[in-house]
Amino acid sequence: MSPQLGVILLLLAFLSAIYALIASLISTRKDNPALVESARNATLAIWPLLTFASLLLIGLLIRGVFGVEYVWNVTDLAMPTYLKITALWGGQAGSLLFWSWLMSTFAAGAMLRNWRRERNLMPHFIAASMGTLAFFILLVLFWENPFASFYQSPSGEVQAYLFGPLGALSDLTASYIRFAERLPGLLGVIVGGVKPLAAPRGAFPVNPPNGNGLNPLLRHPGMIIHPPLLYLGFVGFVIPYSFGMAALATGQLSDSWIRSTRRWTLVAWLFLSLGLIMGGWWAYDVLGWGGYWGWDPVENAAFMPWLTGTAFLHSVMIQEKRGMLKRWNMVLIILTYLQVVLGTFATRSGFVSSVHSFAQSAIGPLFFLFLVGAIVISVSLLVRRWEDLAAEHQLDSLLSRETIFLLQNLVFVSLNVAIFIGTYWPVFTELLAEFTPSVERSSVGPGYYERVTAPLFALMLLLMGVAPLIAWKRASLRRLGRALLWPTVLTLVLLGGLFGLGVHRPGVLVGYGLAILVALVTLLEYHRGAMARVRSHGENYLAALRTLFGRNRRRYGGYMIHLGVVIMAIGVIASNVSQLETQQAVAAGQTITLGKYVLEYEGLERFVATDGRSVMRAQTVVYHNGREVARLRPRIDNYPSGQPMSIPGTYTNLLGDDFYVLLVSWEPVGLSSATFKVYYNPLVNWIWGGGFIFMLGTLVAAWPDFGEERSAAPYPGRSRPVPAAGR
Amino acid sequence: MRKTGQLIPFLLLLAFLFAFPSVAFAQDETPPPDETVTDDEVNAIAEQLYCPVCENVPLDVCETQACADWREEIRTMLAEGRSEDEIKTYFVERYGRRVLSTPETTGVDFFLWVLPPVGVLIGVVVLVLALRRMAPAALAAPPEAEITLEFDDLDPEYVARIERDLKEFT
């Protein structure tokens, strides 16, 4: 099928989104149920249109229709089929289409699921979500169209156009572009960003025999699932935001929208979290610097909405239970949404240039305008309803779960602010340098982030440890002290053991101590809950644990997430603080010693793989305490296009430590010697393991329970039953 | 006896070194040949620098030829006996402040370091003000008074009965 069909599908989807936006807005003025349903149908129609467009693009990718610019850009004949399919999000235009498709899926799903329950919010929900979606389809359609195809003009120029020569129309678009190019400044960029829609008269289609191929860095399982997860997370947060905006616009400010979107938010959050973890795994496995998180601006751009999203997930509980913090929750979801847009913008426009900015394009100013528009609309709605969002209750005590959640919010927002400043500092100083000659662009690397965020992360762990022990409304210090006594004693004993093992730095001990404390407190909470059931219902211990999860999945799933975070935290601390590394050049038969490990270099081999890359591979043997434990073959792949790629060899021991070997360079003459960079990353695999537990916990908390609708109705007895369970 | 036996050669060596100070501190005067600078010493400095060409890639892991050359430059400078700070300053003078991975605390970058703590402080103030508005009663009452209301002090049987009754009720 022809790529032009894709263009038409996109155009129809765009028109549907615009229609849904306008119809839903008009329906709010003149209470017109038929118009709302019409807007709903338009919203639903977008999904099959974008699904069809995406499938069409996948078909073009699989068949290798290299006349299509996007297909030519991201695939070649040698690539396996699964990579051709995932090349859908391997480049700018395809990822934006994929983003839009996910967005349409979420919007349609959330709308159908809440159509009856939240009928009054629907028109504005449609307006907010379709406004966002229309913007993204607009980008796909006119700025980054994956269906644009190559045409050669009579004068010999080859360029990509949406349509073939259409006679007078193509002359018209060409003169429009010439007009746009003469417009001043931003206006010119915005209007002139549109490429000519149709090829000039007399042009004919061009079909290159082979494509460029996917960026080698992206040919990795982690990278194949990392972007979709991240996009799902990004897109998912548009749902609670749209509901929030609808609540503000209609003035129906009860917390029912929060209940209706709770699972959507949790699912979005899960995907975003997994996207971040997958990104780390990919970086660790592919980028070959022995680390997994480099505080790269694009990583930060995805991490920042996660921070406000996490704060939101916690503080909405206060609104649900106590009718407080309504304003603050609105602020948090607006911030999350804006950071999602900003994150996509920063990633996609190359605004903050970094290793991730494979794709740069002229969509920056448009994103900027959209962002400004979103800020203006959100803030003005919030200001209009400010008084209506007053709290229904007061805090009963300063020592209560509510206060801890507020502190948690403070920590997360502080992290967000610190990371925001660091991320945009280089751009800021670069701008400043334009006006003041004494200023130059600065870089902000891990050294800054580690120093600034470490105390905040420590505080976060402390709050995670204490929060489960503090009751809603009112807690007592005595109770808290009693509940903390044994975990603290045990933590101190374990810290003593760590000290004996050679961990002496106070900051590091504090980090481990807090992590251990959280783990113990959380496990103890499970134990106490289960014991209470064993006593009261006579269940056996395991059955009691199971019912515990069934009864209050949100709480016990949440604790499981905390356990996952703790395990990840231990992995992060250990692999940062106790990492060993060395780089040495060795001849065949020589060894490199690092800690208790010895690496013996045997030799090099060079060969050409089936997909055309030339591979230089080293044979090495790893010994631990004199015993052979692994044979590793780190290698460097050289793709015909693109820069070389270093694939590490990794040996993982039972504790989860990695011995990680990179081939750095070799003696070109006779391959007699090679240089290796060797890392010992203690407990680094705890990060991935903790991530898995984190995921399970979120699934426990978010799993749909169709018999549970009653929980949507607030009832006063919801506060925790722990006083009885705790005995 | 065995211990003193081992000590004697050591003391002799020490005496020898003190007798000929120029031998002990020779390294400071004549630069050793290139090979004595290890890759690890080079990387220790390179990892604090960013590749001046590729954005946000630490110099020690950058795979481009330019960066390999820059690492060799560090090696040469180390071999000449230049200090870490001298080498970093050299790179900053040549390629600008952007080569420093961790910004200095001077000039505009001072604010980079100061703003986050200031932000946290502002957050704390806002939180305290908010708490005052949200919990006037709790702040006014003496903190000890609330403890008497705790369930802890009640008979567990009694609490269980209330819970049961409540459950039947709802």
Question: What's the structural blueprint in terms of helices and strands?
Answer:
The complex is a heterodimer of chains A (727) and B (170).
Chain A: H1 3-29, H2 33-63, H3 69-74, H4 81-86, H5 92-114, H6 122-143, E1 149-152, E2 158-161, H7 168-181, H8 185-192, E3 204-205, H9 221-236, H10 238-250, H11 256-287, H12 297-322, H13 326-349, H14 364-384, H15 401-435, H16 446-466, H17 477-500, H18 506-537, H19 541-551, H20 553-577, E4 580-587, E5 591-594, E6 597-608, E7 614-624, E8 627-632, E9 635-638, E10 645-647, E11 649-652, E12 658-666, E13 673-681, H21 685-702, H22 722-725
Antiparallel strand pairs in A: 1-2, 1-3, 4-13, 5-6, 6-7, 7-8, 7-9, 9-10, 11-12, 12-13
Helix pairs in contact in A: 1-2, 1-6, 2-5, 2-6, 5-6, 5-9, 6-10, 7-8, 9-11, 10-11, 10-13, 11-12, 11-21, 12-13, 12-15, 13-14, 15-16, 16-18, 17-18, 18-19, 18-20, 19-20, 20-21
Chain B: H1 2-19, H2 21-24, H3 26-29, H4 39-46, H5 65-79, H6 84-95, H7 109-134, H8 136-140, H9 156-169
Q: What features would you describe in this structure?
A:
The complex is a heterodimer of chains A (727) and B (170). Chain A has helices at residues 3-29, 33-63, 69-74, 81-86, 92-114, 122-143, 168-181, 185-192, 221-236, 238-250, 256-287, 297-322, 326-349, 364-384, 401-435, 446-466, 477-500, 506-537, 541-551, 553-577, 685-702, 722-725, and strands spanning 149-152, 158-161, 204-205, 580-587, 591-594, 597-608, 614-624, 627-632, 635-638, 645-647, 649-652, 658-666, 673-681. Chain A is of the alpha+beta class. The N and C termini of chain A lie far apart (69 Å). With 170 residues, chain B is mainly alpha-helical. Chain B has helices at 2-19, 21-24, 26-29, 39-46, 65-79, 84-95, 109-134, 136-140, 156-169. In chain B, α4 packs across α5 (65-79). Chain B is elongated, with a radius of gyration of 33 Å. At the A-B interface, α15, α16, α17 and β4 of A face α4, α7, α8 and α9 of B.
